[in-house]
Amino acid sequence: MPKVGLADLPLHGGSAPRWLFERMVKLASAIADVMIIEYDSKEIIRRLADPFWFQAFSCVLGFDWHSSGTTTVTCGALKEALKTSDEICIAGGKGKRSTEAPNEIKAWADCHEMSPDLEARMIYASRMSAKIDNVAVQDGHELYHHTFVCDRRGNWTVVQQGMNQEKGYARRYHWYSGELREFVEEPHTAILGIEANKVLDMTSRKSGESRKISVDLVNEGTDRLKREIVFIGEGQSSITEWAGERILRLSMPRSINWEALREAYEFHPTNYEELLSIKGIGPSTVRALALIGELIYGAEPSWKDPVKFSFAVGGKDGVPFPVDRKSMDESIQLLIDGVEQAKIGEREKLDALKRLRRFVPHDFDAI
Fold first, then answer.
1. What is this structure's pTM?
2. Residue 52 above 90 pLDDT?
3. CA 149/CA 108 separation, integer angstroms
């Protein structure tokens, strides 16, 4: 299940003023109503997975595009706007609210005749997407925001955000069910962000052998793993000479959850997704398994940040770049139609369109 986008945004303290948030809720509700009538719930879900559309939508609602609050406030406003919707469920949020996503999904599903199987799949998708962005993609950002959006037909998207305290940036991750393949291999289809160094990406296709070795190691038991770690420690000097700079990024974590590894051995996962789904298998354990797999078995994981897009500067401030022009035009037109047909005042419509005008490239003439 490909992740559709990722964005890096500077951390801004404080919160949106109440008057602004209320205005955002009103406009979000009006635009969403138009989209559901003109298209369907799937279209809103699909668009929220597009980082460009999400950014433009936030701009139309009136929030500063270039801050970490873009994610949290926009998702919060949309959740409030659709809290009584029979078409779309929005669960989770910032901080402790993020952990409520499974319960909120269940509550909505029970009230809207969603089958137990589909409900379980939605809850699993919520939990697994968060687990992967925290554990399998180790880019220095710890998740603190998770919003899950779904409908009764099982279409869903995730918009979640991680924080890098050291650099003062937040990174946004978008997931979408529409092109579902696997949770653990090449989930990104359009990633927006600032490229980082030394990112362990176990979801990369290049990490396929490393994932396989990790599962094999777990299924051989903790005694074998401990022997491998001792072997690495004893051969550290020769390994350093052989591996060069590689050893700098593959330093053995100080803490490994041996209890979780024992439970994993008893569970006997058949693939990497099953391994990650086990409670207690966290970043350090994943990293340790990758280290053993590379230094002893030669299964090198990917150390390339899975970022594909970055923010442009200069004349196209606010626009994720590069952007497919046709897709961008469609996204903007969709928002224009939504604003123009929304049941709001003419002054509010004009203000919303002006905000969108400031967001898009100067050579876009449709507004």
1. 0.84
2. no
3. 11
